[in-house]
Amino acid sequence: MTDAPLTTEQREGGTQFAPKFDASGLLTAVVVDHASGKVLVVAHMNRDALDATLASGQVHFWSRSRGQLWMKGETSGHVLTVESVMVDCDQDALVIRAHPAGPTCHTGAPSCFYRRVEQGNDGPVLVKVNT
Fold first, then answer.
1. 53, 73, 129, 130: which could form a disulfide with 79 (CB 3.0–4.6 Å)?
2. Does pTM top 0.85 for this prediction?
3. What is the mean pLDDT of residues 118-125?
């Protein structure tokens, strides 16, 4: 991983991993189930979370609400074991394919995405779906 400035061509077509963190020091991480391809969770990583994820093979995030690093499943045991990490073209977002060791959502749902937005008579409503 490098902090050296890269040209657009190097960033988009080269082989150097140089994650581009936002002004808050974060990048977006989308975690999908390696087996099913379903989206499990979308969260944020700072450099420490990314480094810990790559070093340990367990997904770590930066909690914006708590202001701290945390490993997914550190209290529940429902860890996310990394299968692969993909980076987008400008290196400011990741897709992590992982093996979940149980429900991913703190609500107990397999995925954090368990409700669909539908148009109701009085506007948008949420409908629970099987995940």
1. 73
2. yes
3. 96
